[in-house]
Specification:
It is a single chain. The chain is of the alpha/beta class. Strands 1, 2, 3, 4, 5, 6 and 7 form a 7-stranded mixed β-sheet that branches. Strand 1, helix 1 and strand 2 form a beta-alpha-beta unit. Helix 3 crosses helix 4. It is globular.
């Protein structure tokens, strides 16, 4: 899908690039290097929007007629955000927590131009079966999910064998709620 204005994806995520390409979008990539910290007092469901806006605004001085697409995904289990794991041990800990439990995945998207900014999000509930320690370690050692919130990709082996139920957008869990991105870009 070719919009009248050029699109810039502010992300190095292979999954977000894949989704936009598969949906037929024409875009360039400019992934800003930003500090992804957020205020500790911020409600968890506001964190992805805050970070998506931060990513988009980091490119504001580089754009003319373009529309920037920036996104951030968080995995929330109970009252805890499970970010990208720092190492193997942290990934094992996260997946052990997600095993047999249901968690929320929120992806926020910020669309930014020279004179307009909109941010929206989508929430998906994901339920995992009970995972064995062997399955968790096999996945981490073979799929290296260190660039993924919650230490897993729904499209990877663990998602295929471990996700029992998804209530909401599968593509949201992958990193972009494509149905909302498409509708918002048309209106933008």
């Amino acid at each position: 899908m070719n919009f009248k204005r050029p699109l810039i994806l502010a992300s190095s995520s292979p999954r977000r690039q894949f989704l936009l390409k598969e949906a037929g979008f024409v875009f360039t990539i400019d992934s800003p290097d930003i500090d992804e910290s957020f205020p500790e007092s911020m409600p968890h469901d506001q964190v992805p929007g805050y970070l998506a806006e931060k990513k988009a605004k980091a490119l504001s001085s580089k754009i003319n007629d373009e529309i920037v697409i920036a996104a951030d995904t968080v995995v929330i289990l109970g009252k805890k955000i499970l970010n990208k794991p720092a190492n193997r041990d942290e990934a094992i800990q996260m997946l052990s927590l997600l095993s047999g439990a249901t968690h929320r995945v929120i992806t926020a998207v910020c669309l930014l131009s020279k004179n307009k900014v909109i941010t929206f999000d989508d929430c998906t509930m994901v339920s995992f079966v009970e995972l064995t320690p062997y399955e968790i370690e096999f996945y981490i050692d073979n799929y290296k999910p260190f660039d993924k919130a919650g230490s897993y990709g729904a499209q990877d082996w663990l998602g295929m064998v471990g996700i029992e139920k998804i209530n909401g957008s599968y593509f949201n869990v992958m990193g972009l709620p494509m149905h909302k991105v498409y509708q918002q870009l048309i209106q933008f």
